[in-house]
Amino acid sequence: MNVAVSLKWLRLDTSVAVSDITSAVHRLAACIADVNNWMSASRLRFNPFKTEIMWLGAGHLLHQVDISDIPVLSSTIRVMQSARDLGVILNSQLSLSAHIAALCRAGFYQLRQIRPAIRSLTPDAARTILQAFIACRLDWCNSLLYGVLENLPRKVQSVENAAARLLASASRCDHITPLLRQLHWLPVQRRVEFKIACLVHQSLASLAPTYT
Questions:
Q1: CB-based burial of residue 166 (10 Å sphere; 0-12 exposed, 13-18 middle, 19+ buried)?
Q2: For a 10 Å CB count at each end of the chain, is N or C smaller?
Q3: Which residues, other chains included, contact 94 with Cβ-Cβ below 8 Å and sequence gap of 6+?
């Protein structure tokens, strides 16, 4: 299993067996102390209260870990069950279930906020708004959904279905496939595959942004 430490701008990871978890905590504390010394020499300040620590591993291994507080300099940080990284919520088993749940909650909330304004918009304006909603919400880091359990993408699909029905003024009894085809919206699973295909094509054709 792994222990992951996020310092907002710096990420530390180390792999360790469950039987060696205590020594891993000591090594981690020493590493953070070295980081703090380097930051002090560079006139930077290390804030332990913005440090997040999380155990990563299989469920049966995590149940064997009884360390829930990690010493960080003069403070003690409680191990978290989930953490946000670049807008993606990761949990201790990397199942993305917490991320999907937060994505669906935020998506349905925003659709409820958009619904009253749809009637006063032109069809083109309403379509632009909902397409922007789909692009910024459902397509953000969606390549992470490739290969996950089918029930998770289905939950995200329900958000896209609700957006399509809102735009088309359709009821929940109407079939969603004709609506998606009419709007030229790919289903969530196809959007994931399309994103990965585009990334692979850009890499093979040397069209990806240069690393700086």
A1: middle
A2: C
A3: 56
The token pair that represents 11 in the structure block: 């990420």
pTM score, two decimals?
0.72
For the stretch 200-210, what's the b/e string if a residue is b when 16 or more beta carbons lie within 10 angstroms of its beta carbon? eeeeeeeeeee
113: left (phi over 0), alpha (psi -120 to 50) or beta: alpha
Render pLDDT for 15-30 as a digit per residue (tens, 0 to 9). Answer: 777 777 787 788 888 8
CA distances for 122 relative to 125, 126, 128, 136, angstroms: 5, 6, 10, 21
- The pair of structure tokens assigned to 157 is 């699909």
* Residues facing residue 15 across a β-bridge: 2
- DSSP structural state of residue 46: -
**Cα 95 from Cα 26, distance rounded (Å):** 28
pLDDT, tens digit, for every residue of 141-164? 888 888 877 788 889 999 999 999
Kindly compute the dihedral angle of the four CA atoms of residues 141, 100, 170, 174, in this order, to the nearest 10 degrees.
Answer: 110
Backbone region of residue 47 per phi and psi (left: phi > 0; alpha: psi in -120 to 50; beta: other values): beta
**What does the domain layout of the chain look like in residue ranges?**
2-85, 95-204
Report which DSSP code applies to 69.
E
Task: Report the Cα 129 to chain-centroid distance in Å.
Answer: 23
Round to whole Å and give the CA distance between 201 and 61: 38
